[in-house]
Amino acid sequence: MPKSPRVVLVSFGADQFATLHSTCEQAGFVPVSYAYSRSKRPRQRSSPNSGRVVGEVLDAIPPGMDLLLPGSADGLATALSGYHPDLIVVYGFSWKLPETVLRLPRYGVINVHTSLLPRYRGPAPVLWAIRNGDADMGVTIHRMDGEFDTGNIIVQRGGIPLDDDITQKSLSARINPVISDLLGIALERVATGFPGTPQDDSEASYAGFMEPGFSHVDWSHTARDIHNQVRTFRFMGSGRGPLAQIDGRWVKILRTSTTQAEGIRVDCADGPLWVTEFVPAEPPATDGPAPR
Predict the structure, then answer these.
(1) Cα–Cα–Cα angle for 90, 113, 229, rounded to 5 degrees
(2) Bridge partners of 155?
(3) pLDDT digits (tens, 9 = 90+) for 207-266
């Protein structure tokens, strides 16, 4: 009787690991280790919230499962080789994996990316979808190669709504079943050697991290653009918002409305925007937008 394929899961949170783990088991793959990137880039200091996330993963991880916390790509490659994986499944890992990792498993390395590739390649596809005011988003599972999000597409699906008040929690509830369904299909295909479909590079766009200037509101932009800017920050986490000046006061804007609502009306490039929730803030250390 053939042995069940061994799979290493690489992800960014307890909920995501659980989704990958259960789907792999249902498909007949055996998870043998988890790996979590404690920094946005190899050989950098750990991210501020990495300790909290590791604690949550450890609270939920199955008994006997190893959790790797690599500090470098070379260290990750060395550690993974000891598990003899047949497949590596990645979801939300910001490092570029070296060839030593990509060549390690016989079925290759596949990645769950939260956009309809080739659109929004890069580390922040959902943030850019919200920032651009997209009505919906998609999920792609693709083979990983030497570049970011450029490998052959195994399966993808669109039409996942992005509500005006979208949060990480509400999106996870909506997207996790889609990821589980698509991953089940992808696992079946990679086990048969399906190479995937090449991406059309002419349709590609990049979704990098938000630039520093995005943390300041410029009232000369359109009301919709500023509203989506606030939505993007709110999705990043509760209590987060861009800085702005209103009537000479520095504030952090937490919520806005493009239709008349109780709050402060501010005139933008194309019309009014209502600031419905904000908190006082210290002036930025660098020059912000010109006061109104």
Answers:
(1) 130
(2) 141
(3) 999 999 999 999 999 999 999 999 999 999 999 999 999 999 999 999 999 999 999 999
Q: Any bridge partners for residue 113, and if so which? A: 140
CA distance 12 to 179: 15
Two tokens, residue 113 = 């990316």
Scanning the structure block, which residue is given the tokens 């979590």? 36
**6-14 average pLDDT score:** 96
Q: Would the pLDDT of 285 be above 80?
A: no
Six-digit token string for 170: 């509400």
Pairwise CA distance, residues 151 & 118, whole Å: 9
Residues 6+ apart with CB under 8 A from 258: 223, 224, 227, 273, 274
C-beta neighbour count of 153 within 10 angstroms: 19
Q: What is the pTM of this model?
A: 0.93
CB contact at 8 A, 115 and 129: yes
